[in-house]
Amino acid sequence: MEEKKTVQSAQRPTGARMVWFLFLHLIKIGAFTFGSGWSIVAQMEQDFVDERQWITKSDLMELIAVGKSLPGIMVVNITMLFGYQMAGPLGGIACAIGLCLPAVVVLTAVTAIYDLIKSNYWVWAALRGVQCAVVPIIGGAAISLGKETLKTKLAVVLCIGAFCACAFTNISNLVLIVAGALASLVWMGVKERG
């Protein structure tokens, strides 16, 4: 297994080539991944964790945690942090622009013809099909990343509590994130003091 990681790392571009690779690859992800930020995270996991082994699942989870806790669009934050980790500031910028560029182009085109397509049955049917296909992609990412994160009883309890609060109350996600961080800090403080 270590030999495979060494070979993979040796094939990883560096410098300007890495920035260019990230830009083009994130354009591809942005153009062909539908649904939500989570389906993009699932694609990133498949590409950069499972196939290329450039980062670990734990690294990706850290990027997600930081990206979710920053203001702005979660998945753009995550891709920018990933690009920064891979190729510095230009890598972060390249990832963010690459991810957003396909959506900007498509939305510009759709806006121009919106009145023509808004009531089209075939467009509606196609979008419903895409929605149905995205659900298992997001579920798969949640399960895969959950296996990496939910390794302790505290993590499982926090996850179940956050899920229930998110599903059955109007508590904002920001409050849940801050509460989770505080609960974990309190738990670690209690554990350290015995």
The geometry reads as globular
**SSE order in H/E notation?**
HHHHHHHH
Spans of at least 5 consecutive residues whose pLDDT stays below 50 are 1-7
Largest sheet: none
Radius of gyration: 19 Å
What is the helix tally? 8
Q: Can you count the beta strands? A: 0
How far apart are the termini? Answer: 38 Å
Kindly state the percentage of residues in helix: over 70%
The proportion of residues in beta strands is: under 5%
Q: Mean pLDDT, rounded to whole units? A: 85
Structure class: mainly alpha
Strand and helix map with partners:
Layout (H helix, E strand, L loop, with lengths): L1 H9 L4 H18 L4 H15 L5 H13 L4 H44 L3 H29 L3 H16 L4 H21 L1
Helix pairs in contact: 2-5, 3-5, 3-6, 4-5, 7-8
Describe this protein's structure.
The chain is mostly helical and 194 residues long. It contains eight helices and no strands. α3 (37-51) packs across α6 (121-149) and α4 crosses α5.
